[in-house]
Amino acid sequence: MAAEQKAIPVPDEQNQPYWDGAKEHKLVLQHCSGCGLVSARPRVICPRCHKEEFEWKQVSGKGTIHSYTIVHQTTAAGFQDEVPYVVVHAVINEEPTCYVTANLLVDQSEHDKLTISLPVVIDFEDRGNGVVVPQWRLA
Amino acid sequence: MAFNAANEVAIVGIGRTQMSRRGDRAIGALAVEASLKAIEDAGLTLRDIDGLSTYPESTGPGVGPVPGVSSSNLQWMVQGLGVEQINWWSNGGGNISTAIGTAAMAIATGMCNYVLVWRSMYQPRSGAFGSGTRGSSAGAAPAAAPRAGGANAYQAPYGLGDAPTGFAAAYMRYMKMYGARREHMAAYALSCRANANKNPYSMFYDQPMTFDDYMNCRMIADPLCLFDCDMPVDGAAAIVLGAADRAKDGPKAPAYITALGSGGFNWKNRPPEEWQNDTARNLSRTLWASTYMTAKDMDGAEFYDGFSPDIYWWLEEMNFCGRGEAFEYIQNGRISLDGGEFPINTFGGQVSEGRLHGIAHWYEGVKQIRHEADDKPGDGARNIKHNGRLAENVLVCTGMLGHGVGVILSDEPR
Question: Which residues fall within 8 angstroms of residue B358, CB to CB, at 6 or more apart?
């Protein structure tokens, strides 16, 4: 019981373009049509300009590590055999308030070298059955 | 802009239950026991209570709350306690600090005479405590992969969801920014454990901790080890608030609320576990604006510690040291009950007492102001002492993630 037990993201009306983008190996995020604010997770109204219109656009997929943890014990489905694994909140280059959270796909021998502000690039992990999730790698 | 009712409200009664792990008592029974003790401690009867306030969130993950069994919400408590007349109540907010802050306001504005506040906690007998999407337990047949919708679609597929995982990242950032190490946090863990060893309610009363115990403790989510996390328990505590002018007629010394602050988080789309910095900063600004006192006037503090790094953020945002300095501030016995200049979490904190979700901090604040912080009744083993002088002002701040409330509890109006 391992990878195939991992939770499967279920797209909804709000975030469908994000997961569709992932299937095409593109990081597609919601941009406010009024002020351009980029959000990692879909909003119904922009907190900066209060417009309700958004566009979904691909971003560069480049960012830096804002914070991270190395998980050694978890109750998360499918991850028990994968410890220690890394979870990263990365700020994307286009928008300093936009944090994209994913695992950092990195060899365990590199864990001690991790720190904040390291550059990362997006990658895409195919988990089978059409499930593709964005993941970070060190740039 | 500040709370303008300093000295008008006091905590007049406190009560609590024993704590256990995966106990067999219903959460409602624990809540009623703690509440009746608090009412008696205040020299009141149930008929005197005309206000109720709680934070009703069920603490059992993965199951819906069953009133009385796994949740002691307000509607259930009216029935469970058998309350005759309610003039004011509050059944929501961010956490128990919100319930206490609004209760103080209800007293100050004359909405009611006495407010009972309670929080009872429940640890399910099966499964780990947490909020993640979990897989089958060891040895069980593999379950189908769970489906993660909404916000969870962005978490569960990455092995995120347990509370430590989120807070660990915020703590890791702090360590990398300022050069803090786990060795520094050992000072907090060991101080809390020494306090807990003087607290018979603590789950760790009989278990000392050494520096090596802490450093060798198993890692949960680096840099959080097991001893950086609070311990899930079954248990309850309750407090009674009343008007200060009547409080001095009660059987116990009142703990006057001589300052009160409140704060929430700001919109910036940071990882949620960093919102607590906003909350603490806003709480700090409003609390210190409500009094002429300053950090230097505090004899000690009870700070919410769901996870140990919370202490750094409280100390820094509440003006006890600069940002990025708390890990050094807590060294060399400064926060110890044993002669330290600023003891904190004198009951052991949640990391070494158990997780009563904030209300135990308020209970202990009152014990300190009464000078009755006991191991055995009357021995004052945990009393804060500065050159022989007992505590006159203790800061109590809880609730960080969404909303927080803090007060100064004092032995006299100030």
Answer: B95, B96, B97, B119, B304, B398, B399
From chain B, pick out residues whose CB is under 8 angstroms from the CB of A103: 158-159
What Cα–Cα distance (Å) separates residue B392 from each residue in B191, B239, B241, B360?
22, 20, 19, 19
pLDDT above 70 (res B137)? no
Report the pLDDT averaged over residues B207-217: 98
Q: Which of B158, B177, B181, B273 to mutate to test the interface with A (most CBs of A within 10 A)?
A: B158
Query: Domain range for residue A36?
Result: 11-138
Q: Give B139's pLDDT tier (boundaries 50, 70, 90).
A: very low
The residue in chain B having the minimum alpha-carbon distance to the alpha carbon of residue A73 is: B220
Instruction: State which fold the B9-125+232-410 domain adopts.
Output: Peroxisomal Thiolase; Chain A, domain 1 (3.40.47)
Find out whether B270 and B285 touch, Cβ atoms under 8 Å.
no
Minimum distance, in Å, between the CA of residue A6 and any CA atom of chain B: 6
pTM comes to 0.95
Closest by alpha carbon to A89, among A99, A97, A79? Answer: A99
Query: Where residue A22 sits, what CATH number does that domain have?
Result: 2.40.50.840
Q: What is the pLDDT of residue B267?
A: 82
Number of domains forming the structure of chain A:
1
| Average pLDDT of every residue of chain A | 96
